[in-house]
Amino acid sequence: MPTKMVLEGGVEPVSSLQEGVDATLRLVADAQLDGVSGHYFNGLAPAEPHPQAHDQSARRQLRELSDRLCGLT
Predict the structure, then answer these.
(1) Sign of torsion over alpha carbons 10, 57, 20, 14
(2) CA-CA distance, 58 to 52, in Å (whole number)?
(3) What domain count does the chain have?
(4) Using CA atoms, how far apart are residues 3 and 11, in angstroms rounded to an integer?
(5) Higher pLDDT, 72 or 15
(6) I need a labelling partner for 55 at 20 to 30 A (CA). Which of 38, 48, 61, 73 fits?
């Protein structure tokens, strides 16, 4: 989506703001997704995550870095 962070980062948005709103709203309000957790979506469609999402070491490093940057450690 063309958010401020994406635009300031020089990244070309891959979806419109409305497409992002529609996808987010579906995840929040669609009764068919009640109880769905731990799944990945690309817009409105279920998707497979990047292989790195399954890498326990990468996940641990990301968590540690996030905690440090947020002042939680």
Answers:
(1) positive
(2) 7
(3) 1
(4) 10
(5) 72
(6) 73
